[in-house]
Amino acid sequence: MGAEFDVGAEGVAFEGRAGVWRFVEGFARYWREPISAGDGCSYEELADAEYRLRSPLPIALWDAYGLLGRRTDLTSVQDRLLPLEQLRIADGALVFRSENQAVAEWAVRQEDLEKDDPPVVFRRTDGSAPDWSPFLDRFSLACVEMVLSESLLAHDEDRADNRPLGESETLDAPPAGFERLSLPDYPMWALDAGVVRWFSSPDALLRVDGGDWLWALGRTAPALEAVRALLPGDWINRPW
Which of 21, 87, 91, 237 has its CA 20 to 30 A from that of 9? Predict the structure, then answer.
């Protein structure tokens, strides 16, 4: 089953930047498609981006783009990791990711760009919350969030589904057979005061958005069916 790469067990690697990239490579290998040498941006491309921006780029950003900068299936299914030529400085921050309708964006503050693995901030661009707010305290963790979220949205009903949570379904604690993923709660950009929380089992991932919406990704189709059976409800792709 999922013994080759248990997402929850492997999540202990989040403590270090190198461990994060090992996690991303392992997740891609066993849950998606393996990362190959041609999936990253070159040293020259990254150096050109620094020259164009007249600014250093964090080592963690070099790592991420060098590893999977061309893997849009891992970075840009719904929201979008910006190509290097589209990185920009805006309102005191380096913007590197954009929501799919451009109503939110993620960035690193300019004063943090010389840090190896700096904090990430985000903001709404529709006028409702224009100031930068904290997202995750390390760029590498924001990349884990990106890869998991984009993978969740990359699959059809055979491996992924979602549904609203009922009034009594808070999912503050892990369901049977699941555990909290070692990824901190982080803000849900579309909902004031809402947070996003992840749970994992050896063969499935759950994401809870703002306490009222549930997403599920199975490593296989039977794994997703097991989640639907464990947490019955009005699943969008296969309503009960």
Answer: 237
Tell me the HSE value of 177 on the side-chain side, using a 13 A CA sphere: 12
**Residue finishing a domain among 115, 149, 183:** 149
Distance from C-alpha of 168 to C-alpha of 211, rounded to nearest angstrom: 11
Residues 61 and 117 in one domain: yes
| pLDDT score recorded for residue 240 | 61
The separation between CA 16 and the C-alpha centre of its own chain, rounded to angstroms, equals 17
State how far the Cα of 77 lies from the Cα of 73, in Å rounded to an integer: 6
Tell me the two tokens of residue 33: 């498609």
Task: Give the Cα separation of 1 and 238 in Å (integer).
Answer: 23
Q: Is residue 238 part of a domain?
A: no
Residues 58 and 90 in one domain: yes
Tokens of 147: 């890869």
Examine the domain organization and report whether 111 and 203 are in the same domain: no
Over the stretch 77-120, which tens digit does the pLDDT of each residue have?
A: 999 999 999 999 999 999 999 999 999 999 999 999 999 999 99
